[in-house]
Amino acid sequence: MARRLRTFTKKILIGVNVLIALLFIAGASVGFFDQRHWWFLGLFTFILPYLLVLLFFFIIFWLYTKPILTSISILTIIAGWPAIRNVFTVNFSATFHIEKDPASLRVMSWNVEQFNVQHHKDEPWLKQQMLDLINHYDPDIACFQEVVAGEKKNSLNYFSDIYGQLNFTDYFYSYDIRNDFDKDHHFGILIFSKLPVVAKQTFINYPNDYNSTFQYIDVLKGQDTIRIFNIHLQSLKFSKSNLNYLEKGNFKTDTTITESRSIISKIKTAFIKRAIQADFIKGEINQSPFPVVVCGDFNDVPDSYAYETLVQGLQDTYVQKGFGISRTFSSLSPTLRIDNIFAERSFGVTQFTRIKKSLSDHFPIIADLAPGKNIK
Q1: Digit-coded pLDDT (tens) for 111-167
Q2: pLDDT in tens, 128-140
Q3: Cβ contacts of 91 within 8 Å, gap of 6 or more
Q4: Is the CB of residue 217 less than 8 Å from the CB of residue 191?
Q5: How far is CA 144 from CA 70, 183, 186, 205, 365, in A?
Q6: Do 365 and 318 touch, CB atoms closer than 8 A?
Q7: Virtual CA dihedral for 54, 56, 57, 61, nearest 10 degrees?
Q8: Which of 16-20, 211-215, 299-303, 330-334 has the lowest mean pLDDT?
Q9: What is the three-class DSSP state of 215?
Q10: What's the angle, vertex CA 298, arms to CA 198 and CA 258, rounded to 5?
Q11: pTM score > 0.85 for this model?
């Protein structure tokens, strides 16, 4: 009887191990599937780090019980290694130096969460701390998402005040007035530059909501022209009740059904919209006559369809010079690295850092790029 129980338990564990391996491969392969039709596969990219932990658990377990069965997890990890490197990387030269090489290009990307306009009464000092941080790291290019600023002097976030406190010489603020934050403020995305700007372009696509605006600028670095993209892909648009349910859990039957349906519907919509947006932006990237840098809040994790579409032909500066998991969104899960800086492969990535300061619901990221020989 005991022997039969052990045999049955072993079969169950093998089955669980194989299932985890298949889910891991599915998550690692999402970039090969059009998410407009295979949107549900995107769910596996969010749990990829946890699946990886389980694979290592099974390696350790089988080493003590049946070493030959470690091959299930080991082969899975080998097959998914490129995806693992996008999620977790180790660069022992990851120390970041504030002082920058004059020949390099320092790029910052940050979802600034409206420059704290909604919580200004409770935290009136926070916006100033954000501006001081930007000046401290002294980026040549700063790409911001979820910018709320106004042109009227009585605006709480008066744009001229923000611009006046930062050490930039030019800017490009893109927004759709149909999605203004309020009568005094616009809602959009913004690029600041210390380099000469020779061209600017805004794209506003259907369905014309606040995640449908993208932009780029062309800047001169010496004799070279570089195109900087700033993007903010479709968010999940979770409500406060959705977030509360995910973070704290509420397993009353009626609440569980209602919140689960709401969350799944929003996830599906976001995956599909991000796929459409990523394809459009990639088309613009491919048409660029100049080397490109892509910054933004992707609202999606590494190995997702949007990530794989946009990084194709480029390099992820975090993978080149980052360390650990480096989450960039401060809530829900410690694995949410959803903000990125991609660069043409002709650039050398000399430094990368994530600034872990809770001034927004996102952490800013910075990369130092050394223009390569192939720049036109």
Answers
A1: 999 888 888 888 888 999 999 999 999 999 999 999 999 888 888 899 999 999 999
A2: 999 999 999 999 9
A3: 320, 321, 322, 323
A4: yes
A5: 45, 21, 14, 19, 11
A6: yes
A7: 140
A8: 330-334
A9: strand
A10: 145
A11: yes
Measure the CA dihedral 93/96/101/102, to 10°: 150
Q: Which two tokens stand for residue 106?
A: 């320092």
The full 3-state SS of 36-100, as one line of letters, equals CCCHHHHHHHHCHHHHHHHHHHHHHHHHHHCHHHHHHHHHHHHHCHHHHHHHCECCCCCCCCCCC
Q: What is the mean pLDDT of the segment spanning 29-43?
A: 83
- 45 Cβ contact partners less than 8 Å away, ≥ 6 residues apart: 27, 30, 300, 301, 302, 303, 304
Q: How far is CA 76 from CA 37, 59, 319, in A?
A: 25, 11, 21
Rounded Cα distance between 75 and 81, Å, is 10
Q: State the average pLDDT over residues 83-105.
A: 86
Calpha distance 252→40 (Å, rounded): 25
Q: Tell me how far CA of residue 111 lies from CA of 64, 261, 291, 356, in angstroms.
A: 47, 28, 24, 13
